[in-house]
Amino acid sequence: MKIYKPLLFLLVVALLCLPIACEKAKNHIEIAHDFVVEEKLDEAVAEYTKAIEANTNLVDAFCGRGDVYLKQGKLEDAAIDFRKAIDINPNHIDAHKKLAETFIQIGAPDDEFQKRFKAIEKEPDNPLSYVDLGVFYHKLEQDIDAIDQYKKALELDPENPYIMFNLGVGYLDMGLYEDAEGIFQKAIEIDPAYDNAHYNLAVSMHKQGKIDEAIKELNKTLEVNPKYSDAYVVFGLIKLKEKKFEEAIAEYNKAMEINPDNLEARYQRAIVFALQERYEDALAENMKVLEKNPKHANAAYNIGVIYHRTDRLDKAMEWYDKIAKKIDPLYEDAYYNRGQIYSMKGDHSKAYSDFITYSYITKWRTGKDPAVVYKQDEIKEMFLSSVPALKGQVKDQELELKSN
Q: Residue 87 in contact with residue 350, Cβ under 8 Å?
């Protein structure tokens, strides 16, 4: 029996230390709360961190520190802490609300807006100032605001084909394809040699299923500019729609012969490889896309989907994690698919957490609630569907790129 006494002693000490550690952590949280009231935010972060070091499962510590990070504008850090709180307690409503608030705030600093607003105040009759603000909104995917600015610019300079072009791209992104078609045609009437306008007119026609008209306009694009590689990308999409995979690949190859750095051509070629079940080729192509553009979320997502489809679930999880944590925290499908894998592994708590995050982001993007499942025991039913589709395989509107 003597041999077990040291172990028994250590166990007793450990059990005694647990309440002490918990009490110590709670003290740090209380001190942090006081610092927040006093607006001593750096000191508050330090105390919350000490609480977390004392007890890594304290939801209040992660929520509190995340809230301070949110006040400080450290949005990525805030999102990480709120996610951690949700991982610990998937039913923590406040953490979900704060995470959604963080997602909404992720974007450009206020001074970038102010710089453009001041330019308009200084020269209210300068259409380019409105175009600059519109382009900035466009980059933030605030398409309605972008369109408003382009319209203001066009009122000041109604015969400017380049302003028309930006407005047309805004319409395209909003799915207003007839409006886009009309404005691109006006731009071409003013400047028949405007290759970008010809190309995007073709895209707007293709979106409406006007394939013959789109092909004619793509050919006009190449007449104006024989080196317009993106035109071959759309030719490839037309062949892909017809399930003529080898012909689609040939078109993408033409695009890359003209421009070896045409990432959209390489990305679309990877989709064809995946549809042909040439999975290793598809993975290699998507990896090359990411070498050139590490933030290409769709390429990263399709890597995850390919691993998912081929039952390499740990690798799929690794890529969904990369998207959610590093590449694009607002990429809702990554959360959904990761939740599917958690469910398959029997971790329904994390699956539920990911689906709630997916729901919040979807509502933020669309203003509509997805088919939310509120009970954890219903997670299995929610994920009975088969492996996910490739990004770009189902939604035609995501297939084409636009040249700005």
A: yes
Task: Please report the beta strands in 182-340, taking only residues with DSSP state E, as ranges in sequence order.
Answer: none
Cα 385 to Cα 62: distance, rounded to the nearest angstrom: 34
Domains and CATH numbers, the chain: 16-105 (1.25.40.10), 110-313+389-398 (1.25.40.10)
- What digits encode the pLDDT tens for the residues 300-322? 999 999 999 999 999 999 999 99
pLDDT in tens, 230-248: 999 999 999 999 999 999 9
What 8-state DSSP symbol labels residue 390? P
- Single-letter code of the amino acid located at 234: V
The two structure tokens encoding residue 385: 């569907």
Asked if 233 and 264 touch (Cβ cutoff 8 Å), the reply is yes
Residue 193 in tokens = 């040699």
Round to whole Å and give the CA distance between 334 and 325.
10
3-class secondary structure, 141: coil
260-270 residues labelled b (16+ CB within 10 A) or e (exposed): eebbbbbbbbb
Burial of 301 (C-beta count, 10 Å sphere; 0-12/13-18/19+): buried
28's tokens: 């740090």
Q: Which of 220, 222, 218, 221 is nearest to 235 (CA)?
A: 218
Angle at 221 between CA 129 and CA 263, to 5 degrees: 75
φ, ψ for residue 193, nearest 5 deg: -95, 15
Is the sign of the CA dihedral 63, 68, 71, 72 positive or negative?
negative
How far apart CA 189 and CA 161 sit, in angstroms, is 9
C-alpha–C-alpha distance, residues 367 and 360, integer Å: 10
pTM of the model: 0.66
